[in-house]
Amino acid sequence: MSHTILLVQPGPRPETRTYCDYESVNECMEGVCKIYEEHLKRRNPNTPTITYDISQLFDFIDTLIDISCLVYQKSTNTYAPYNKDWIKEKIYVLLRQAAFSPNA
Q: Domain of 12?
């Protein structure tokens, strides 16, 4: 488990910048999914069940001005930066594992 900091800037103004921290990369990727789910709930307040596919999630990520992760590297005691494409790859792997897990 590597401590991970998610940096997000949804709008063009610097004041929209925010961050969240997580105990692991997977927790962080779940957090990105939750951000998108909250976005969908705000846009569809009267819809009781929200569903989406991975391409819609990736389109949402692409609309963000900036999203990146800083992942703690124990060997160097530093944080390594990762971009949107890396985040999308990690989300894809996470959701694929969830889809094929026996508990899914």
A: 4-100
